[in-house]
Protein 1
Amino acid sequence: MGAFDLVAAMAQTRAVGTRALRWLDPPAGPALVLLDQTRLPAEEAWLTCRDIPALDHAIRTLVVRGAPLLGLAGAYGVALAACRGDDVAAAADLLARSRPTAVNLSWGAARALDAYQAAHRAVGDADPGAARRAADAALAQARAIEADDAAASAAIARHGLSLVGERARILTHCNTGALVSAGEGTAFAIILAAHRAGRVAQLWVDETRPLLQGARLTAYEAGLVLTGADRIAADGSVANKVGTYGLAVLAHHHGVPFAVAAPVSTIDFAAAGAADIKVELRPGEEVTTFAGTAVAPPGSTAHNPAFDVTDAALVTALVTERGVTRPVNAGTLQSLGAGRGSREGAPTDVSVER
């Protein structure tokens, strides 16, 4: 798929090419290999955890994150401890406390521990192969949890699709896709299903903390970044809510199409380019205070633009009521302007996806 192939983007979405978490068998293992999510989207780096302290640190520092994936990390962590001959119960307890709010983590660790202990009891301590069989049982349980999570992800997408109407405008919070699951995620799996069904007209990704997990990760794995606009200059420069420019740069860097949806009336043909777009500056107090309470030290000032401007070169396509215009530049927008007073037909530089 080309970086600027919007038709292909509507037919398929970018997918993370490899799992965010995978088990490594001997002789290279036992180990748990994690996609380091703190380094995305700039770099796809992998961290190999060969013992429980390393995995505990990876969980605490958000190298691996997301409720379903943390469940896998907990289960595979117990299996890792068992394969190493460590104190398995102590390992399960440590992992369960790595992030106490993420209930999947303690749940996955507990299930793998139960499988380990049940297998150990079944063969008895006198059996010289007891430890190996118990470790195999823990690993089998972790793999079963992984398979169940992938199936659950598909079911969530299938059921959730019924909630999404035609031409839906969707807001997604934080990151809920393949980076947090053995499948395609939870909320984002529904969005993907809706996208493939041609039902998504617009998707908003708002920002979340910690570590800016909204746009940073969701834009990395999305197949199409789609925004609105408050004003579009005659050369295709787009003014939109502040933060749009950053998403456009991320999308361009990773070869993800970046499309803008707006009516032709949003194009300001009197504004030749970005310099002619007046960006609204909001009061600094909107940033330094919240609901009347100071959130910054007294005397702090803030630069608070309501919008930023994205250069037309970063915009894959402009979607208006007349169709999809690409490339986005002064020439193609002039074609839209020529027929501005009429809704009949589409200009020659406009293609329409249905």
Protein 2
Amino acid sequence: MNRAGETLTTVATFLLSLVLAIFIWMSASQTQDPVRTRFLDVPLQYVGLPAEASLVEADPRQTVQIRLEGPDSVLQQYTSNDFTATVDLSRVPFGEPVSVDINVTTSRSGATISFITPEQVEVTLEQQVTRDIPVEVDIRGAVARGHTQGEALVEPASIRVTGPASQVNQLDFALVTIFLNNAVETLIETPAPIFYDQAGRVAGVGGLDLSQDEVTVTIPVEESAGFADKLVTVVWTGEPAPGYRLLSVTADPPSVLVEGRPAQVNLLASVSTEPIDIDGLTESFQQAVVLDLPAGITVDPEQTVTVNIEIEPILTTSSYNRVPEPRGLRAGYEAVVEPQQVRVVLFGPLPMLDALSENDVRVILDLFGLTEGTYSIVPDVDIPDRGIEIRSVQPAAVTVTISQTVPTTPSAVETPVASSREDASTTAPTPNTRVPAFCYVASGVVSAGLQEICIGRRKVE
């Protein structure tokens, strides 16, 4: 009996120790890797949509949120890509809102999904239908006078529309609008149609599948019998003034609609204007003209023809040889220029070039502040501002040698003699006339005014 009690005591002690060890181990494990909670957003997917159905309404949310529970080390390994959230539409009836469960699955283990929000989404399915919607044409305006409009051709005559029954079944027709705007030839346009519902209101087709977005509308336009569109030929006489040229002659409009017997109209290649005199003109002008029509041919009296005549000067080049003119040379110095002439080439209107006088083209050498020595001077060309430009100056620079002049010895100055009828004792002597030193330069440039001064001062006052 004692031996059995001891055995029982030993077993109980062992079990108690094992439970205590497991508890201590679990406590230690939870302390090192505690159980935690984590939230993840998983993308929501709709699957199982029947081929003949369309999803017309669905919950706007694109993700669902799940709550995971498990050891922290395991939770840290999970991402949203480890889960799939699906809504199965394969058994959803048509035409009414239905709440469908969200099913979340994962291929990983170690954590538990304890909560999903939302658990359901509301969807509405509709049967998908296809209809051919006819295309109608709204023609506005009219063709030009003397022309006939044919029957409009629409290609294709209808547009195939596929989508939910509630949207497709409300469509009645598609409309395209064409503006003729006095068309004189066959009109081909590719407008986008506008859809209308059964009540005649504009209907949106967003989300619907259209067989095409545009249609081709062809409206034949032909000339009526006895009418024809003929080119206008401008007739002129004379020539522009010398130095000017006729640049262009155009008629606005370039053609006119004429009326007459069909045979006569068909023989007419063009219609001419009455002659326009341009003799001696120097500028462009615009003028309303009268047409010189054959007998039996008429035009609309309200139709006017304006002729635009463009005249411009002839542009050319002209060369001029000019002697350089020194400016600013100091008194007592002379300048020798090499070469003695400079060739200037000008470009501009011929009448302006022909009107240039000798003094209108001048070559100037700036010698201000220069002393003795040899210099390379770039000449300045002075021309009138008449739309003329300088194309070249040759040479581009001239050589100028400046040297000091040696004044000559002035000649003896005659002393004026007093009048014999005057008393010598009362007559005051007349002072000698003195000549400025700059008048005795050996050579150089002296202005006309200075020459007159020098000549005048050499005379006895």
Protein 3
Amino acid sequence: MAIKTSLAAIAAVSLLGGSFAAVAFEGDVSLAQQLAVTRGDQTVVLERVMPKYKRPDSIPFPEENPYTEAKWDLGKALYFDPRLSKSNIISCATCHNPSLAWGDGLARGVGHGTNELARRSPTILNGAWGEVFMWDGRFDTLEEQAMGPITSEAEMAMSLDDLLPKLEKITEYRDMFAAAFDGSTEITAEKIAIAIATYERTVVSGEAPFDRWINGDDRAISAAAKRGFELFNGKANCVACHSSWRFTDDSFHDIGLNDGDIGRGAQLPKIEKMQHAFKTPGLRNIDRRGPYMHNGSLSTLAEVIEHYDRAGIVRPSRSDEIYPLNLTAQEKRDLEEFLGTLTSDDAPVTFVQLPR
């Protein structure tokens, strides 16, 4: 009989000793139940769980926008150029700064006229694998996402009628567009989006201690972090939403925050579960990306864990995956210890000499 999680007869690996033992399951066995299996006095996790978190070997580029070095060079220049904003002081990097894990470190972003935005600036890390973009999922592709903030009155406030002639007057930009687009010096919104998206797809978090651990280095993370990983996949139920190597399901959930923003509900007003639902953020480099949540309302990872332990406010739209966890103080510390193993020491990003 197939099991509910599509895992049949599976080997299990000890978190403590690294030894293997065969474990078979039949019937409707939940992932949490499987993770609760013990051999002797050692808690074990399923061998099949760990490969789900393995890093990919390459970056996916869409057929309609394949990678080229010329597009990458152009995209990087555009990404860091504040002249893409009406005020000439805001660039993509203002809100998505590589020095701040590709966010801005603020509870809520700051847009045109230094006005506070409604939501926190999300990181662009690992966006190449994203399925939808923005907290409310209003953009389907990185190309759409790239142009959204530029033309948004609240953010960079730059109309295309002003932007395109502005860039066309910059000689070096005309040359860069020609190099990236088969000799054509014509500058269009589509080409700007294509170039920026090409650059953004290469913003990928590096190898973290967690990656070394699941690849066989048993000393790469602490015993507490290993317990945290088991909790993440079991009692704490984090895996229900934070799945895959990026630790996100690219879906939307109401996690019970006391906030009036309806999020995804604006796009899907007739679906009850989408009211107050926001995109699940990935967890790579998460300990460098505070404050947290779409509204920046939680300052630390400890506060985030406390929120999930309490399950937030009860309302019809709250996700069925959100419920009181009854974690102990030690379990909360173990979860936070595990989350710290997802942070990589990435190479510094060099800024560019902008076109003149």
Protein 4
Amino acid sequence: MIPNESKVFLVGAGPGDPDLLTVKAHGLLRTADLILHDDLVSAPILSLAGPQAMVVNVGKRCGLKKITQLEINRMMIAAARRRMTVVRLKSGDPGIFGRLAEELDALEAAGVPFEVVPGITAGVAAAASLRVSLTDRRKSSRIVIVSGHRAQENDYAEKTDWKALARADTTLVIYMPGHDLSGFARELLDAGLSPTTPAVVVSRASTPQQRESCTTLAGLPAVSRTNAPLILLIGRSLERAAQRTSTPLHTPAFDEDLTSLLQMIGASAPTPSSTEDPERRISQ
């Protein structure tokens, strides 16, 4: 390791909502000297950077490369060697389709110290916004995360084996599915999934611009084109999203049944909240 270097932090910015940024990520943005961010990192998150930070867009979105991966690696290493604190800011979680492995290889080869700071990935945020669980012990016992996009460098790779991935007990989380959803529908139906399997397309998860379309595998080809970035969720655990109505959720007041349940575990029930006692909480 070369002496007198600062650390490079490879940080997940989450899906876009600044409230979903981790406390650690927020603190690093405030103190960083150099922030190298992807295109999909939202403006509200970038606004959290400290006044001393140099903020540089190094995005490679939709095949339009402003800078190569090699150049990004060289910038991180050069800045660290100048004793700068570097934040490499990636949308979602840096380890989910974020080229994290390539950057770790470069930093390790150069002897530059680094730390990975995880973030909320877009697939999880999309499910949360739909108020569904990606797993359900009654329906879905596993999650498969897969990319629908293949970079030019990976053209040699074999076609995705959907028969090996698509099972009735699986929730598929497909990143970057593109706009030709009919292709996914056809391949997954050929792989053996039922035409009635729930499918949800979520655009710009967690942001004010979020849009979602709830359908089935057979109905995917009819989904209207929406703005990227997109997440495609497929699986029986999504049935709640399709069945849910717009009826507001009813939150029951504390009652004697809750008191009895709390007493069973040795806890005391709170009295109804009031302006006179705003800090009262359930206590053990």
